[in-house]
Amino acid sequence: MTREGPFWDVMEGRVAPPPAAALLGWQLVAVDPEAGTIEVAFTATEQFLNPIGVIQGGLLAAMLDDTLGPALVATLGPGQFAPTADLHVQFLRPAHPGRLTGRGRIIRRGKDIAFMAGELLDDSGQIVAAATATAQIRGPRP
Amino acid sequence: MIREGPFWELMEGRAAPPPAAALLGWEPVAIDPEAGTIEVAFTATEQFLNLVGVIQGGLLAAMLDATLGPAVIATLGPGQYAPTTDLHVQFLRPARPGRLTGRGRVVRRGKDIAFMAGELLDESGQLVAAATATAQIRAVSP
């Protein structure tokens, strides 16, 4: 597989990481485009706290979106992109500031649609949130 | 209904928003606890952009979470809170930096569970995203 396209442009330093990824402290840990899997890390800061003093659920959703999207984008060709149409998140445990790990995988991929699933874990390895997502695949196929 | 406590201080502009709300530029606009409805505003900045140059979907999910959560909290008594267990977001149109409006409502509320729905609109009044959520209603431990 040629490592071209928007994901690899970021990974190989040809393009700056997007602002939203920087906001969440996004870092690639491992990626396997042939298997359709990815592992990424995030840094949850005190800036992400809700009134109860835990990380706001919606920001955990943002981290899961930024796990599942890249799982798919890593498999695309140059000129392709994959807007997420649909994201469903279950909030399983409270999350606290610190490092969070996102694991994502493509469950099924067609010509113009893809289905992903993943989890967010805290630094003791406990699952804090789980998600599924559906994305459209657009742009010229390689 | 007595409008006291930290939530009402926030809704009535007497208290500063908690960190995650401040990050999203959250502002109260209108609230009707008897009807179970709320309207809030957000400021999407360039810091929220994704690789394609539109607001990252997960951050729209965070805005919807920060709309639907308060819709329920407004109907609770002192000593109760309502963690969101489940959030489902559909991304309808691309969103760009600027002011976004969240409208939320409590669809059904029981003693220990609540169901919410809502939308996020851009400055021209077009829908950018829609969501449903489920929350548990709990008592703060003494």
List the helices and strands and how they pair.
The complex is a heterodimer of chains A (142) and B (142).
Chain A: H1 6-11, H2 19-24, E1 27-32, E2 37-44, H3 57-73, E3 84-91, E4 98-109, E5 113-121, E6 127-136
Antiparallel strand pairs in A: 1-2, 2-4, 3-6, 4-5, 5-6
Chain B: H1 6-11, H2 19-23, E1 27-32, E2 37-44, H3 57-73, E3 80-81, E4 84-91, E5 98-109, E6 113-121, E7 127-136, E8 138-139
Antiparallel strand pairs in B: 1-2, 2-5, 3-8, 4-7, 5-6, 6-7
What features would you describe in this structure?
The complex is a heterodimer of chains A (142) and B (142). Chain A has 142 residues and is α+β, with helices and mostly antiparallel strands. Chain A is built from three helices and six strands; from the N terminus they run H-H-E-E-H-E-E-E-E. Chain A has a single domain (18-136), classed as Thiol Ester Dehydrase, Chain A. Chain A has helices at 6-11, 19-24, 57-73; strands spanning 27-32, 37-44, 84-91, 98-109, 113-121, 127-136. In chain A, strand 4 (98-109) and strand 5 (113-121) form a beta hairpin. The longest helix of chain A is centred in the middle third of the chain and has 17 residues, at 57-73. Chain B has 142 residues and is an alpha+beta fold. Chain B has one domain (6-139): Thiol Ester Dehydrase, Chain A (Roll), CATH 3.10.129.10. Helix content of chain B is 20%, strand content 40%. Chain B is built from three helices and eight strands, in the order H-H-E-E-H-E-E-E-E-E-E. Chain B has helices at 6-11, 19-23, 57-73; strands at residues 27-32, 37-44, 80-81, 84-91, 98-109, 113-121, 127-136, 138-139. In chain B, the strands form two sheets. In chain B, strands 1-2-5-6-7-4 form a six-stranded antiparallel beta sheet, with helices on one face. Chain B has a two-stranded antiparallel sheet with strand order 3-8. Chain B starts with 5 loop residues before the first helix and ends with a strand. The relative contact order of chain B is 0.20. The interface between A and B is large, with 40 and 39 residues.
